[in-house]
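Support request, please re-run this one:
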Amino acid sequence: MREGFVETRAGRVHYERGGEGTPLVLLHSNGNSLHEYAPAIPQLAQSFDVIGWDMPGQGDSAPLCNHLTIDDYGDCVVDLLDGLGLARATILGASVGGTINASLGARRADRVTALVFVETQFRTAEWWQQMWTHVERLFAVPAQSPEQVAARFRRVTPELVERLNLDRHKAGGRSMMSVMWAIREFDMAGMVAQINAPSLLLYGSDGPTIQVAEAFQQALPIASMAVIDGCGHFPMLDEPDEFVSVVRAFCAGGGQT
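Re-run finished. Output below.
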């Protein structure tokens, strides 16, 4: 993988790129970085031109100067494509990355080949209000103990705990909470209703968002659904081989699993 930076409307964005094939852009979850996909990237790069970004304000991208909306993050993905000379790409987004996918699919369908939503939230305003204190506990404080990591990941190693804490401290509590506000304020249902691109909803059987999978698919009936057994919120880390297999099958099938 080779790395570099692209200037976007939110400052410079760090990326890594490698492999051959159709372009596949990886959008990570809140507080992490492109390293979130590290176990899956070598296999993905056998089939795709893989581009992993660090979202604005996180990883090795420039820090945020102002709050960004989900649409703003989507526009930065378009800036990334422009900077790399890519007309279109399949966009794979985990958690908030999937929320960004919804914005891209609705607003910039001309730049999207297909969409993969990994463990993506599809919540009501009431849910966000009721759960906000829990959200603050999870994202306002960067440091994560091994016990906290074990509650969210299935394959916990000292290296994983270190990587997560490095990335969360790079992002910082304010940046992570800004992202959560962006998700909370985004009209997910309204945007999803406008998506026509081939789409895959991918969930872990033990993840925190599996309970919204059915509602999400009802809102996006053109989407295929895949559930990986034994996974939590991070199937690319919990079961990377199965994760890659599902993504390959979806893309090879023209948007069908």
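The radius of gyration is 16 Å. The chain has one domain: 2-252.
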